[in-house]
Structure prediction request, 676 residues.
Amino acid sequence: MLEKLQTASSYQISQVKVYPDLNTIEVNGQSQRVEPKVMVLLNYLAQHQGEVCSKQCLIDAIWPNQIIADEALTRLIFVLRNALKDDAKSPQYIATVPKKGYVLLQPITLPEQRSKKQLLILFASLFIVFASLWAMQLQPSAEYNIIKSKPITFQEGREYGLVEGPNFSAYFHQYQGETRLMVAEQDGSYRQLVSDEWQKRSLQLIKNTLFYVRFNDTESQIVRHTLSAQPEVLFTSQRPIYHLSLNNEQQILLFTQYNDTVNTGLYQYSFIDKQVSEFLFNTAYVPAVIDQHFYDTNTDKLIFVGVQGRFPVIYGYHSENAIYQFEIKGFDSINSIALGKYENTLLVAGSYQLTRGIWSVNTVSNEVTMLLNANDDVITAATMGADLQSVFYTLESHRQDIVALDWQGRNINLPELNSTLREGRAQYSKDNARIFFFSDRSGDSELYQYHLNTYEVQQVTHIKASAIWHYSLSNDGKHLAIVYSTDKIELGIVDVSNGQLIQTTQLDEIKFPLAWSKDDQFIYVSEHRSQIAMYLYDSSSLTIKQKQAHLGLSAVEVAHKEIIAFDYTRDQFVRYNFDQKAAKPVSLVLPKTTHLAPHRVYVDEELAYIIDTNDDSHRLDRIQFAESSKGWRTRLLGEFNKKARIQSINPEQQTLLFSKGYSAQSGSIIELELQP
Prediction:
């Protein structure tokens, strides 16, 4: 079989047809060309079908007599899985065997003997392919072949923001509440330029001058800093400033600044007149959120990240022609963008198709290829080295715990609940004996339950999600309504007895299953992003039965299809009847409610508990309902940290559950050395 496969012009893996000589894979009747190294990888796995192929064996087969890092193989596996329409979490073709390698799961089928006419056609095709490959050899390769990776910073704490210059490099070092600006000399020595309690970001180096943003809870400042002088503040704002860049003439400093709590604008500081003005786009469409901007020195394009709906888009804007020359879509999140090694390419750190890593993006063909898989870590920035022979990136590991707080502000111990990864979306069970929460401790996002008496943790769902957004338990305790993401956003019903999905429907954006009707016939689901609305879903079919705009936040059923919810047109809680389409106020008017989200309130038939947020802290308030718009409001718990993300409120236990995110304990700057 192995000998026949090595000489076969085609073979089949389940429903996939493979043509090795043509570098072509046919899936569901659609042909796709793949790069030669991807075909070598597939052929090797096919020749060893059913066997676990080690990473080193695969590297030796694909890159003989070369020193190649594992990341290059990971990229090819990602590309091959995409070509096969395979899912890494539920593989049909290529499975990952942790710490061992990869295995091809499906058996191989060889074609019957070809006729002479078929062979003539094949030889003609091969001639065309070889001619194309010969022509391709005349073009420069656009691959990033990684030779090795190594950390270049070694201090305890978080190191980030590396910039390279002709005479020195610089980066930030955050440790024990202070952020240091460090300079790395050409002789390999390091020295501290400044150290203070200001947090810092967006480091830029122009010749021998450093620019960066420093900020605290009340203001942001743009700072210019030369090695021989004290920091000079160019501009101060009460609104957050996030990203800096300079135009090609280096006369204008661009920066993004929040216009409100959601949207950002692009502004410019002139070194000539020292004035700040808004950057003007001469186009009809300007994204409401702009970030990660820089000028392409080769084409004079302004490249930046904007947000369309919920997802980031990379734009190439030509000021002179007032047009967007390209729009790159498909990313779930983007942490940084920079010019790539090759012409018309970008280097992107972020998540693409729910996979975190570093990506090479061709702005002409819109092709996105993986350079490095981040797995469970977060790559916050990636840039090319000055010599184009290295990629520098910042790698951070993040942890998020669930913490309980009583109404006197004291911590409550929850032993054995948290792992070393992320936990969140916590809420008490109806009997207050358990805490439900999501965790990615298994590699996927799943829902777990924590028993408050025994400290035992049990997995509830088996849905292999990339993220869990919200969930609600039925009144009989047998089913769970859950909104989650895989390669799409879905609302599903989970059988609690076995953790399996029994019904799903795709959503166009994230929604919140707030509560079930008392007879468990319906699910009240709210939407709080592109619009605010309350939906009444049939719990059996997951079809929408009714919808009411401007209603959300809570859904406490007080009668058949009658609920207590928040009316955003009135800014108060109301009793709303879906059949009569009538609303009756039950609370006083609550101004400034735009920050409220379903996990930040607790509502029953008589009162509501809400988290009130000011500029730097949270407060817990109780709202007493009445048969009018009067009612009253009482403050229960004073200020506590704004960075705490409230998960749920339990009046009976007089406790709060919130998630506590930890800054990266050991963020490091790492160099990927590339093959010339």
Q: What stands out?
A: The two ends are 38 Å apart (CA to CA). Residues 1-109 form a domain with the Arc Repressor Mutant, subunit A fold (CATH 1.10.10.10). The first strand starts at residue 11 and ends at 13.
